[in-house]
């Protein structure tokens, strides 16, 4: 089924958290593909399951969470079935990850160089001196001035932006095939975020690494990626190339998210929000998970859960508005009431 | 009561009305020497001499990145921190000199909304108690009246009355922020200091809260000081915006002028750094990516504190601190080489 | 897209229902609610039952005990427990070297052990809580002075200090409670102060200050409730260690004085007979173990229940 370009194929992934109140499906049947060298964003708000999806791919889901179904095909291996020991060989080698808060991801008692060199030594067959040279090289590549000085300094002496650069250097040091970036710029100031985004754009051009960018910020998405996956309440609700998505969002949630993202160039735009709140696992609505907040919700949405349908040019959307049968039905029921 | 005579000699504007709040030469330095035996004391200059005026009924946005002193300024205005130097004049009275009971009474007029709706509510108090707390503290309402007032406040911020006996942890971030707003409104304040009230919330919820604040401002004739780390958040709500950098205000003007013709290079950097949610323009739009990091406020650069990151800086900027002055009507800038036309990002401000 | 600010109720099936006349509602059901919460936790239930039994035994010891506390019977010296050879059903847990009924003495000892355990914790707790709250909240010189005092207390071995007090004053139950109380407050002071320091920095304390709440009110309503779970945990553990401490003091002969009896005193008494007549020391020891376990179970459960975030789980 692989077409030679495909790097990752997540199929019907289910990750549940087992609490005293029973199993909570954080990721509920998520499917998507990532091609070699492709930049994909997974967009969603808190509780959408976007982070758990990425942790599932990395095999880093912690107790009481567990992958209970589906497969994660990476090249020809199903990572969902991998043991922790097998995953350790994949992590940092084939798949690397950078996190939101770079300070907690670096060990405070070792120097930057020490940690970077160790990462290289662990995954590549080189001697110490070469590893050091490669480390300094890497630091220079991610735009760190005076890389040899930073090499021997400790994490706390660097600023947030510098630490994130170090994390990127560390993640890319082993030429991974896939890089997962979980909110890489959220903790940073906006002028520093712009620097990191520029850096990532440059690196992507140079390297052939596929990137999954996990974020809530559609602005960052628009700056960087090729394709977008929108998640809501543990499911993929829309999947599209970035240009079509911003020009013509299909799912009402995507549209709402896009409308509520502030546009700095338009001073007098209206303040638009999606009504209600993100549902918690304890009170997940029946039918379409978005229907309580949806401006276009129909009777049909209240009790029937939509499938992820394929539209023209490979776009996918999970919404009854694009089901002809349902819409015809609704229209005849409502007489001459207009549908959007 | 009037310890400080209000300034009336304002030659620039024929402004008869005195501002609700006026900040003069405000400074807050934290001692970060560490260790008892160091001779030279080290200070973190969180706020390093700022002057601001907030008119009645307006919203002043304060924007800046981490370490610029915006939150410290907010905390100083509500007197959660003691100023090191300077005056905070509220309705003709210097808050910086108030202590004890006088200050406690004054707090009724100046309330704050906090950034993190998860830590700013006592987890062991129910919603009713949380909203009733300010009323009980100042003994403004009792018994049935108190009950009525609390439910009235819940209604005003859009919380349904059956939530009254729930604990904060049962709510989402947006609703917790509504509780925080109800508490702040309880005593009918004149000034509301909002310290990044939406930055911890989901994007789709943020505008709910911003709309609510805007509505409440009109309804109760509030004056707002709205602190945020980015310009998008203050864009809607502010009448005027102050941009801070390393403890100083570098630019202050109306939001229209600021967005259309920023005069300080830092403001321009801030404006163009905001990602634009339109992939069509990502390769073509003009932007100024500011180089380098924000310097430490313990050891700020000499001269203009922005010179280390400024694309236009020269020797003069390294040595002389630029004066904060009104370069165009209602447009204050602290820069030796202010941007002339100003690129801005908005083509046609209307 | 909808633009209005619609307050959307969060349907929260777990939370307790909140009717209008909710004060009434709360009072009516609070006992039932507590019982329900208790029955949900196995260890909590066990702890609660043990503690209830111990309390009832302690309060009604006169009525329950089959023999008097110092009733000697030289004809029945060192009788083994009923199930052993030579044991009699009259003395279920056997008798000691003076022919006194062990079961009865344990029952009487319950009163003293509980009295000492609970009241010395009350004394230590109140002192330590106050010191910790004020030192932590106000900081500055109050903090410095209190904490140096704590350090001074901690540098003296606990038991030595109590022994000194007991020697200077007359040994007895009140002295014992006082001595243990004034030495153990430092544990509370230190731990509570640490907690206060972290609670004080939370934003809701700042929020309370910004609305003009007085310092004492902030301590009472915002700081105290949020350090209380820590207090409960130390207290229960402390009741347990105090019962053991009382036992050691009585063991050293400086604790409870005859004709009063406590578990520790019995333990000390039975020491010489451990090799030959094991029941003299074993049963009071068991009484201590079971009681301490019960209190710890109950304390753990209390700590969980007092956290509103755990409610409805």
UniProtKB/TrEMBL annotation, chain A:
Its main location: membrane. GO terms for biological process: peptide transport. The keyword Isomerase does not apply. GO terms for cellular component: plasma membrane. Keywords: ATP-binding, Cell membrane, Membrane, Nucleotide-binding, Transport. It is a peripheral membrane protein. Gene3D superfamilies: P-loop containing nucleotide triphosphate hydrolases (3.40.50.300). It is found in: Cell membrane. Belongs to the ABC transporter superfamily. This is Peptide ABC transporter ATP-binding protein. It comes from Salipaludibacillus keqinensis.
From TrEMBL, chain B:
Gene3D superfamilies: P-loop containing nucleotide triphosphate hydrolases. InterPro entries: AAA+_ATPase, ABC_transp_ATP-bind, ABC_transporter-like_ATP-bd, ABC_transporter-like_CS, Oligopep_ABC_C, P-loop_NTPase. GO terms for biological process: peptide transport; transmembrane transport. GO terms for molecular function: ATP binding; ATP hydrolysis activity. CDD domains: ABC_NikE_OppD_transporters. Keywords: ATP-binding, Nucleotide-binding, Transport. Residues 21-271 form the ABC transporter domain. SMART domains: AAA. PANTHER family: TRANSPORT ATP-BINDING PROTEIN. Belongs to the ABC transporter superfamily. This is Peptide ABC transporter substrate-binding protein. It comes from Salipaludibacillus keqinensis.
């Amino acid at each position: 089924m692989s077409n030679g370009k495909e790097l990752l194929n997540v199929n019907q992934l289910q990750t549940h958290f087992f609490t005293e109140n029973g199993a909570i499906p954080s990721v509920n049947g998520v499917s998507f593909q990532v091609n070699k060298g492709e930049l994909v964003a997974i967009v969603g708000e808190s509780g959408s399951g976007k982070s758990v999806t990425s942790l599932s791919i990395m095999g880093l889901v912690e107790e009481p969470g567990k992958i209970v179904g589906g497969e994660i095909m990476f090249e020809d291996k199903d990572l969902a079935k991998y043991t922790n020991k097998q995953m350790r060989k994949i992590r940092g080698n084939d798949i690397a990850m950078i996190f939101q808060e770079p300070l907690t991801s670096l060990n405070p008692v070792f120097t930057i160089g020490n940690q970077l060199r160790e990462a290289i030594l662990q995954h590549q067959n080189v001697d110490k001196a070469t590893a050091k040279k490669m480390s300094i090289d890497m630091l220079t590549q991610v735009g760190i001035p005076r890389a040899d000085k930073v090499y021997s300094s400790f994490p706390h002496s660097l600023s947030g932006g510098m630490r994130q650069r170090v994390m990127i250097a560390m993640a890319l040091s082993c030429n991974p095939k896939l890089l997962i970036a979980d909110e890489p710029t959220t903790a940073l100031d906006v002028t520093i975020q712009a620097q990191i985004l520029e850096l990532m754009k440059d690196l992507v051009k140079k390297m052939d690494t596929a990137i999954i960018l996990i974020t809530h910020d559609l602005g960052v998405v628009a700056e960087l990626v090729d394709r977008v996956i929108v998640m809501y309440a543990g499911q993929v609700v829309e999947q599209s190339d970035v240009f079509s998505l911003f020009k013509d969002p299909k799912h009402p949630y995507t549209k709402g998210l896009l409308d509520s993202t502030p546009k700095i160039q338009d001073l007098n735009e209206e303040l638009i929000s999606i009504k209600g709140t993100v549902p918690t696992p304890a009170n997940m609505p029946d039918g379409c998970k978005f229907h309580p907040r949806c401006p276009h919700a129909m009777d049909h949405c209240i009790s029937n859960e939509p499938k992820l349908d394929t539209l023209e040019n490979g776009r996918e959307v999970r919404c009854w508005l694009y089901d002809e049968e349902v819409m015809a039905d609704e229209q005849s029921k409502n007489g001459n009431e207009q549908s959007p | 009561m009037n310890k400080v005579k209000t300034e009336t000699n304002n030659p620039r504007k024929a402004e008869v009305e005195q501002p609700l709040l006026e900040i003069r030469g405000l400074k807050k330095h934290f001692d970060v020497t560490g260790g008892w035996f160091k001779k030279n004391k080290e200070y973190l200059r969180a706020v390093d001499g700022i002057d601001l005026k907030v008119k009645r009924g307006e919203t002043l946005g304060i924007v800046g990145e981490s370490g610029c002193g915006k939150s410290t300024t907010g905390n100083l205005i509500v007197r959660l921190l003691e100023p090191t130097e300077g005056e905070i004049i509220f309705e003709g009275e210097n808050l910086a000199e108030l202590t004890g009971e006088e200050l406690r009474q004054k707090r009724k007029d100046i309330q704050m909304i906090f950034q993190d709706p998860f830590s700013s509510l006592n987890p062991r108090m129910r919603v009713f108690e949380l909203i009733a707390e300010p009323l009980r503290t100042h003994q403004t309402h009792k018994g049935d009246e108190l009950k009525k007032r609390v439910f009235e406040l819940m209604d005003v911020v859009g919380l349904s009355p059956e939530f009254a006996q729930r604990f904060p942890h049962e709510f989402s971030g947006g609703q917790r922020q509504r509780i925080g707003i109800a508490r702040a409104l309880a005593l009918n304040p004149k000034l509301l200091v909002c310290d990044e009230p939406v930055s911890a919330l989901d994007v789709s919820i943020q505008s709910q809260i911003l709309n609510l604040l805007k509505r409440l401002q009109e309804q109760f004739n509030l004056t707002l000081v709205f602190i945020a780390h980015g310009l998008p958040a203050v864009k809607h709500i502010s009448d005027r915006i102050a941009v801070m950098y390393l403890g100083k205000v570098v630019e202050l003007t109306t939001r229209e002028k600021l967005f259309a013709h920023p005069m300080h290079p830092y403001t321009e950097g801030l404006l163009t750094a905001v990602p634009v949610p339109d992939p069509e323009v990502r390769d073509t739009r003009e932007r100024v990516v500011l180089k380098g990091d924000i310097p430490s406020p313990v050891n700020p650069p000499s001269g203009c504190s922005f010179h280390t990151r400024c694309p236009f800086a020269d020797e003069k900027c390294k040595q002389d601190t630029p004066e904060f002055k009104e370069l165009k009507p209602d447009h204050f800038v602290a820069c030796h080489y202010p941007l002339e036309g100003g690129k801005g990002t908005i083509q046609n401000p209307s | 897209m909808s633009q209005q600010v619609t307050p959307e109720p969060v349907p929260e099936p777990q939370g307790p229902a909140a009717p209008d006349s909710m004060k009434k509602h709360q009072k009516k059901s609070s006992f039932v609610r507590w019982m329900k919460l208790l029955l949900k936790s196995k260890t909590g239930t066990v702890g609660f039952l043990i503690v209830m039994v111990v309390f009832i035994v302690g309060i009604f010891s006169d009525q329950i005990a089959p023999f008097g506390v110092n009733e000697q019977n030289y004809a029945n010296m060192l009788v083994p427990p009923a199930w052993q050879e030579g044991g009699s059903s009259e003395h279920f847990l056997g008798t000691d070297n003076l022919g006194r009924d062990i079961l009865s003495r344990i029952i009487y000892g319950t009163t003293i052990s509980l009295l000492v355990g609970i009241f010395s914790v009350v004394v230590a707790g109140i002192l330590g809580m106050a010191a910790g709250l004020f030192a932590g909240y106000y900081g500055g010189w109050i903090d410095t002075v209190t904490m140096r005092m704590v350090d001074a207390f901690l540098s003296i071995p606990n038991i030595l200090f109590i022994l000194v007090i007991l020697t200077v004053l007359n040994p007895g139950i009140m002295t014992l409670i006082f001595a243990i109380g004034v030495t153990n407050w430092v544990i509370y002071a230190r731990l509570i102060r640490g907690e206060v320091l972290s609670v004080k920095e939370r934003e809701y304390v700042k929020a309370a200050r910004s609305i003009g709440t007085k310092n004492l009110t902030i301590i009472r309503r915002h700081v105290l409730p949020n350090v209380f779970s820590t207090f409960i945990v130390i207290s229960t553990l402390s009741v347990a260690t105090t019962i053991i401490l009382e036992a050691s003091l009585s063991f050293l002969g400086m604790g409870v004085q005859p004709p009063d009896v406590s578990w520790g005193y019995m333990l000390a008494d039975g020491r010489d007979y451990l090799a030959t007549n094991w029941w003299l020391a074993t049963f009071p020891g068991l009484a201590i173990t079971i009681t301490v376990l019960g209190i710890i179970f109950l304390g753990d459960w209390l700590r969980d229940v007092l956290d509103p975030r755990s409610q409805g789980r």
